[in-house]
Amino acid sequence: MPLNADIFDGIPEFIAVSECRGFSAAAKRLGVSNSHVSRKINALESRLGTVLLARTTRTVKLTETGERYVQKCREVLDGMIEANEVVQTGQVRLEGVLRVSAAGEFAEEYVVPALLAFAEQHPALRIDINFNSRMVNFIEEGIDFAIRYGRLQDSGLIARKLATRHLVALASKSYLQQHGVPTHPRELIQHSCLVANNNRWLFSDRGQPLEIRVHGRWQTNSARALIKACKQGLGICYLPKSSYGDALQNPQMTEILTPFSSHDLTTWIIYSNRKYQPARVRLAIDHLLKTFTNWHE
């Protein structure tokens, strides 16, 4: 095929459909209409004289030829993006949209200010942060990276440690006067515990991990709502020290089970395993890692 202006026509659309496994998701990711994507793919297949995508009413799959072709296309497209950004980053001008998924009080209180500082350095860059705790589909949703905490599921994603925090068990004096003070994590099964995303609390007993399954009257994924319930005597809270704010200094609150508290709650930056990342993503990750290098609660 001779080199001409049409040689890359339809390639971005084809890569998007192959990664998103659908025309609608690809169109949403690219910010175009379904008909635009379909027209580009049809023109590409006609130009190549082969079928790249096997379409049914419900699914879109790559043909054997399409599988081979998309790998080569990714290499070429990544190379073009890298070549462009070598020039652009040399001028320190980042553009486009940085899409971040975040969860937890730590992300709101500490990660957001760090990203705001990054945004100030790059005024042409847009940053879109979606706060949720679900497992996102990086490709279909166009997420560049996510901020998550705790133990991670084994996956093909890359996880880099951002910060390590200490967990603290806290209860109001009124609750402890009424229900007693637990002296070992196993006694929590007899107490009302204030549950966030996970009802399995991890402690440390004589250097060994100890997991306790708890239950209670109040469950929410908001740390602020958990702390309010704790202050009102609804139960025992178990959160990172940095999430409590001034609650730890409240004379009506008491820290309990201190010898058993876990000191290993990790916050991670998670992103898909891609051969090449856009400069805006790579530099944002580097900025966060540098910001939290010496972070302490």
UniProtKB/TrEMBL annotation:
<dbReference type="InterPro" id="IPR000847">
    <property type="entry name" value="LysR_HTH_N"/>
</dbReference>
<protein>
    <submittedName>
        <fullName>Transcriptional regulator</fullName>
    </submittedName>
</protein>
<dbReference type="InterPro" id="IPR005119">
    <property type="entry name" value="LysR_subst-bd"/>
</dbReference>
<dbReference type="InterPro" id="IPR058163">
    <property type="entry name" value="LysR-type_TF_proteobact-type"/>
</dbReference>
<dbReference type="Pfam" id="PF03466">
    <property type="entry name" value="LysR_substrate"/>
</dbReference>
<keyword id="KW-0804">Transcription</keyword>
<keyword id="KW-0805">Transcription regulation</keyword>
<dbReference type="Pfam" id="PF00126">
    <property type="entry name" value="HTH_1"/>
</dbReference>
<keyword id="KW-0238">DNA-binding</keyword>
<dbReference type="InterPro" id="IPR036388">
    <property type="entry name" value="WH-like_DNA-bd_sf"/>
</dbReference>
<comment type="similarity">
    <text>Belongs to the LysR transcriptional regulatory family.</text>
</comment>
<dbReference type="InterPro" id="IPR036390">
    <property type="entry name" value="WH_DNA-bd_sf"/>
</dbReference>
<dbReference type="GO" id="GO:0003700">
    <property type="term" value="F:DNA-binding transcription factor activity"/>
</dbReference>
<feature type="domain" description="HTH lysR-type">
    <location>
        <begin position="14"/>
        <end position="63"/>
    </location>
</feature>
<dbReference type="GO" id="GO:0043565">
    <property type="term" value="F:sequence-specific DNA binding"/>
</dbReference>
<dbReference type="GO" id="GO:0006351">
    <property type="term" value="P:DNA-templated transcription"/>
</dbReference>
